[in-house]
Amino acid sequence: MTDRIAFVTGASRGIGRAIALTLAKAGARVVVASNEPENNEKVAAEIREAGGQAVTVFLDLTSPDSIKQAFGDILKQFERVDILVNNAGITKDNLALRMKKEDWDLVLSINLTGAFLASQQVIPGMMKARWGRIINIASVVGQSGNPGQANYVASKAGIIGLTKTLAQELGSRNITVNAVAPGFIETDMTARLTEEQRAAMLAKVPLKRGGQPQDVANAVKFLASDDAAYITGHVLAVNGGMYM
């Protein structure tokens, strides 16, 4: 991936951080993007200390203006984005009966609309270059459903639909669009679960353990590489067999 420009949303922590570090190690120049400037700088510093190249940009996926500004700044600096990883996501869990509209709107805004608007920013340049990789981080629950997460599940199911549609629209320009659907991954998000919730979750995993952010990052690296040049519109499950 030498000299490729990779833009990773939600790169300040967890899975996004692992993706940024992994793509940098593979040779890409990485844009570390999130709404946490201090953590962005920490991740960029890690990349530089390991011999990689990284820059940071503030990105608020609830704001179309922030999205345009962030990508505009990067396109001015590098002239292109070769690899876009739409990783940023949040949860606001509740039973559908009790879910507040603002919690529905916020999760859909960041997880789905944000990914769509970010993709729009890079598609023209990728089409001109006749090369590009868009990789969307979905979720196992976007395939299986999950009680108490109507908003999150809808956003991740939407990401899968968006992935397949963009793959069909952009394939003739040598742009691949794929999704990675993680299962139970050990992150800050899952650390909030109780022991009972963790046990119930792991009971559904044939490999009998949680995954690591690096497991997801490795899948993203593959889909971003030339080794995956003939793969598009695919949902790559990284879930330990949790959903088949």
Low-confidence spans: none
Helix percentage range: 40-55%
Largest sheet, spatial ordering of strands: 3-2-1-4-5-6-7
Mean pLDDT across all residues, rounded? 96
Number of domains: 1
CATH homologous superfamily (4th level) name = NAD(P)-binding Rossmann-like Domain
By DSSP, the count of extended strands is: 7
Number of helical runs?
9
Question: First CA to last CA: what distance?
Answer: 31 Å
Given the C-alpha coordinates, what overall shape results?
globular
Structural class: alpha/beta
The percent range for strand residues is 15-25%
CATH architecture: 3-Layer(aba) Sandwich
Q: Which CATH first-tier class would you pick?
A: Alpha Beta
Structure description:
There is one protein chain. The protein is an alpha/beta fold and 244 residues long. It has one domain: Rossmann fold (3-Layer(aba) Sandwich). It is built from nine helices and seven strands. It has a seven-stranded parallel sheet, with helices on both faces. α1 packs across α9 and α4 runs parallel beside α6. The longest helix is centred in the middle third of the chain and has 29 residues. The chain starts with a strand and ends in a 6-residue tail after the last strand. The mean pLDDT is 96.
